[in-house]
Design a protein that fits this description.
By secondary structure, the chain is mostly helical. The chain is built from four helices and no strands. The chain has helices at residues 3-15, 28-40, 47-62, 66-83.
């Protein structure tokens, strides 16, 4: 697993519920957990990280994984946080 994929997995895990799925919109606690991971890994939030997020979205769309596609909204939120 590439470094950017590993960091993306950390961010997504921080935002997931105990069952491993995302409940959107994210709760205040999950948003805080996600931001905490992103702040701790700020040096890794680069173009490769965003590329991993977009590649994951494209794969989910191609595989017709509706739950992960709904997560596309989530991935766009990650991209917005990184670009701020």
């Amino acid at each position: 697993m590439s470094q950017s994929s590993h960091v993306l997995t950390e961010v997504l895990t921080a935002a997931a519920e105990d069952n491993g799925e995302w409940e959107l919109p994210l709760s205040t606690e999950k948003l805080a957990a996600m931001r905490q991971v992103m702040e701790a890994r700020a040096e890794s939030l680069d173009e490769a990280f965003l590329g991993s997020a977009f590649a994951w979205m494209r794969k989910a769309k191609g595989d017709k994984l509706d739950g992960v596609l709904w997560g596309g909204v989530f991935f766009r939120g990650i991209a917005e946080c990184v670009c701020m």
